[in-house]
Design brief:
single chain, 349 residues, alpha/beta, 8-stranded parallel beta barrel
Length: 349
């Protein structure tokens, strides 16, 4: 297992992060039931297996099974006698946690109410990485940032991050944080996969420019890249994608990617899923890839992606088959900036 800096901080996290959306999910939990319904004994096995493989980074959210995911994760650490200093716990706030008008948002009120509840469920006195889980079109950015900064100053939260925001808004937030002397976002948690490379248009350049740590959610596109799906494949009825078709993916563009990953995987004796994860781990703008598992076997296969090194030729072929169609202003950047590359200049020009 390799460890990378959490954004610009001095904290190091494993390049594989265990996601916990499969924890909990009782019969009344709606879509969470379709994603996963692991009870405590199974959760302990998954968390224990991750720790044994060198994972020190665990991501959850208050909204996952309406708090049950956080509760199961906190209890697993207790059951396994894990020292608090040996794990990095990330959780998120924003989603609806009740019927009231203020039970969802990135407002100061909801953040302050939610952090206390998350700490109690996780059975800890601090959260290592507290993330805003979604885009709030009402709450001013400064209100959100000041609330997060207060939590950092109070010691309840150590670092802050954001998820599912657009590049312009993250850039604005970073500017506000610098101007006001507030704790800045150190991470971005975003959807990214070989079947969905939209992040590369605006967010990836921002990540590299501002030294943000990218946490990739749904690296297998909700199971679409597990190897169970594709032309000629028949996925089991209990597969996540069969019951919860998310995130949106252009399947006609995805199937050639799956076919090539299957070819590469067969040649190396590994699964399609492992190739998909290895492709992400090879990207310079990726800090950590979040995996989720329902079984120990699934966990073991995903964890093994850190040992799979794709050759430059294999990465090139995968990049080519999954390449994004150019959009404006990208195609104009390519046309106008083709000579503005340092290697293109020489004494003869």
């Amino acid at each position: 297992m390799k460890y990378k800096q959490l954004g610009r901080t001095g904290l190091f996290v494993s390049e594989i992060c265990l996601g916990t959306m499969t924890f909990g999910g009782n019969a009344d939990a709606g879509m969470w039931r379709a994603i996963g319904s692991l009870e405590q004994e199974a959760v302990d096995e998954i968390v224990g297996g991750s720790l044994a493989a060198g994972v020190n980074f665990f991501d959850t959210a208050d909204v996952y099974s309406f708090g049950e995911s956080e509760r199961h994760l906190g209890q697993a650490f207790k059951n396994l006698d894990v020292k608090r200093k040996d794990v990095v716990i990330a959780t998120k706030v924003f989603g609806r946690m009740g019927p009231g008008p203020n039970d969802q948002s990135a407002s100061r009120g909801h953040i302050m109410d939610s952090v206390a509840a998350s700490l109690e469920r996780l059975q800890t006195d601090h959260i290592d990485l507290y993330q805003i889980h979604g885009n709030d079109t009402v709450t001013p950015i400064e209100e959100t940032l000041r609330a997060l900064d207060d939590l950092v100053r109070q010691g309840m939260v150590r670092y802050v991050g954001v998820s599912n925001w657009s590049a312009w808004k993250i850039a604005k937030a970073l500017g506000v944080s610098e101007a006001k002397g507030l704790s800045r976002f150190e991470t971005l948690q975003a959807y990214y996969s070989i079947a969905g490379r939209d992040l590369e248009r605006e967010l990836a350049p921002l990540i590299l420019e501002e030294n943000l740590g990218l946490m990739v959610w749904s690296p297998l596109a909700g199971g679409l890249l597990s190897g169970k799906f594709g032309p000629g494949s028949s996925a089991p009825n209990d597969a996540r994608r069969a019951n919860f078709d998310f995130p949106p993916v252009d399947k006609e563009r995805a199937w050639p990617c799956v076919a090539l990953m299957r070819e590469i995987g067969d040649a190396k004796g590994v699964s399609v899923a492992r190739v998909a994860l290895a492709w992400l781990l090879a990207k310079p703008h990726v800090m950590s890839v979040i995996i989720g598992a329902k079984t120990a076997a699934q966990l073991e296969d995903n964890l093994a992606a850190v040992e799979l090194l794709l050759t430059p030729d294999e990465i090139g072929r995968l990049d080519e088959v999954s390449a994004l169609p150019q959009e404006y202003p990208g195609w104009m950047f390519s046309r106008q900036g083709s000579t503005r590359i340092p290697a293109a200049f020489s004494k003869s020009t």
